[in-house]
Amino acid sequence: MSTPVSAAQQPRDAAESAEATSLEGYRYRWIVFACVLAADVMDLLDSTIVNIAGPSVRRDIGGGASTLQWILAAYTLAFAIGLVTSGRLGDIFGRRRMFLTGMFGFTTMSLLCALAPSPAWLITARAAQGLFGAMMIPQGLAYIKSLFPPDERTKAFTVFGPVMGLSAVLGPIISGVLLQADLFGTGWRMIFAINLPVGILAGWLAFRRMPEIRSPDADVRLDLRGSALLTIASAMLIYPLVQGHELGWPGWLVAMLVGSFAVFGLFAVNERWSDHPVIEPSLFANRGFVAGMFVILGFFIAMSGFVLTFNLFFQNGLRYDALHTGLVFAPWALGIAVGATLSGAVLAARFGRLTLHLGIAIVCVGMDGLWWTLHRNGMSTTGWDVVLPMSVAGVGSGLIFAPLFDIILADLGDAEVGTGAGLLNAVQQFSGATGVALLGTLFFELLPGHLFIGALEWVVWVTVGFFALTFLIAFMLPKHAREGAEFS
User: Fold this and answer.
1) Tens-digit pLDDT profile for residues 396-422
2) Are 136 and 103 in contact (CB under 8 A)?
3) How many CA atoms lie less than 13 Å away from 216 in the CB half-sphere?
C-alpha cells in the first residue's frame, strides 16, 4: 500500500524546479493526473483486496499453509525492492516510458493472476505485478510536481488523501462483494480482472497525453551491485519467515535467515563506497530519519500481520464468508478515515509528534479491548462483538497515517526529502511483507496447540508489543513536521 505523499515530501532542488517550470500549466495535466491517481488506486486495492480473497484462492487452486502469506508478501516485497530503484530508472530511461511500462505490465500481470491455474503461477504473477507497480508509482509524483503550477499542485495533492482513504475503506468490502457475486462464474479471479478496464483506459490516456520527462543530470546511473545485494538480502529474510513452518525449520533455512543480515551488511558497505548509491548515504546520518524508519518498520509489521491473522480467524476459524469478513473490517477502515481526517485537519499541525504518540496509545487500547473481547467470547465471537475495539484501533491508526512521513522528514535538507520519502515508502512496503511473513508464521505455529482463538490472542499481544516498541522509538523523531507541511 503506498502512502499518499504530501507537499512536504517533494524534492525542491534547483534542477527539478527548472524542469517543473518548463512544463507547468501543461494543457492535458488533469488527464495525466487522472492516470496517476488510477495507478495509485490500483496499487492500493491490490495490496488490500487479496486479504479477504486468500482463503477462497487456496480452496480453488490448492497450496499449503503459507500460500496466502506468499500471495501477499510476493507483491509487497517486490514492490518495496522496485521502489528503491525505480525513481532512478525514471531519470535514466524517461518517466513516461517507465510509467507506461509499469501500467501495461501491471495490467498484464493482473490478467495472468486472474488466469492462474496453480499457486506457483499466482505467486509469480503477483511478484511481477509488484515490480511493475513500483515502476509507475514514483513517476506519478514527478509528473504532478512538473505539470502543475504551485497553486494547482496543492489542490492536486489534497485529492490523494480522500481518494486513497476511501480506497482503503472499500478494499475489503469490494473483495467480499466480488467474491459473493461470483460474476460470470469467475469467483476470486474477478478481484484481479477488475484491473483490466481501468489499466487499459489509464494506459491509453497516458500514452496519448503524458509528456516525457527526463533528468537534467547527464551522469545518472544505477548501482546494479547495490540493487542486487538489496534484492538478495530481502529474499533471504522473507523466504525463511514464510516457509519455515511448512518445512519444519531445517538448518539450511535458519542459516539463510541469519545470512540475510550479513548480506544487508554488505549492501550497507557497498552504499558507503559507491559513486552512485541506491540510497543516499547522508540520510543515515540523520537520527530522526533512522528512528523514523524503525517506527514505520514496527508499526506496519504489526498492522499487516494482524490484518492477515484476523482475516484467517474469521474465515477459516469462524467460517465467515468473504463478504461478511470484509464487513468485519469496515469499522477498522472507517476508523482510519476518521482518525486521518482529525489528524490532518487539527491535531498534527498543532501537536506534531504528540499526535503519533496519541495514535499509538489509542491503537494499543483498541487492541487490548480486542484481546479482552476474544478472550471472553472465544469461538462464539461475532463481527458485532469487535466493532468497538476495531473502530478504536482504526482511529488510532488514522491519527498516525496523516503526519507520519512529514514528521520523519522534518530534519532533512530540501535536496534529501524526495529520496527520503521514496525510501520510507519502500520501508513501509517491506514492513508489510515482513509482518505477513512473521506474524502469519507465528499464527500457524501456534494453531495446533492453541486452536484459532488462542493463536489469535497471542498474535494480538505480539502486535501490541510492536506498537509499544514503536511508541518508545517515536520519542527520537523531530517534534514537529517540516515547515509548510500539508497533511493529506
Assistant:
1) 998 988 788 888 888 877 667 767 777
2) yes
3) 11
The amino acid at 433: A
Q: Is 248 left (phi over 0), alpha (psi -120 to 50) or beta?
A: left
Cβ count near 475 (within 10 Å): 11
Length of the chain: 488
| Residue listed under C-alpha cell 481518494 | 163
- Retrieve residue 428's grid coordinates: 513501509
Written as one string, the DSSP assignment of 155-204 is HHHHHHHHHHHHHHHHHHHHHHHHHHHTGGG-GGGHHHHTHHHHHHHHHH
Alpha carbon distance 160, 9 (integer Å): 14
The residue type found at 97 is: R
What amino acid occupies position 34? Answer: A
Contact partners, residue 296, CB within 8 Å, separation at least 6: 404, 408, 424, 427, 428, 431
Per-residue pLDDT reduced to its tens digit, 65-77: 788 888 888 998 8
Q: Rounded to two decimals, what is the model's pTM?
A: 0.82
Euclidean distance between CA atoms 328 and 331, whole angstroms: 7
Query: What is the full DSSP assignment across 259-307?
Result: HHHHHHHHHHHHHHH-SS-SS-GGGGG-HHHHHHHHHHHHHHHHHHHHH
Hey, what's the cell of 235?
529474499
Q: In the structure grid, which three cell numbers stand for residue 264, read together?
A: 544487508
> ∠ at Cα 449 (456, 455), nearest 5°?
5
Comparing C-alpha atoms, which of 9, 314, 348, 347 is closest to residue 160?
A: 9
The 10s digit of each residue's pLDDT in 75-107 is 988 988 888 788 778 878 888 999 999 999 999
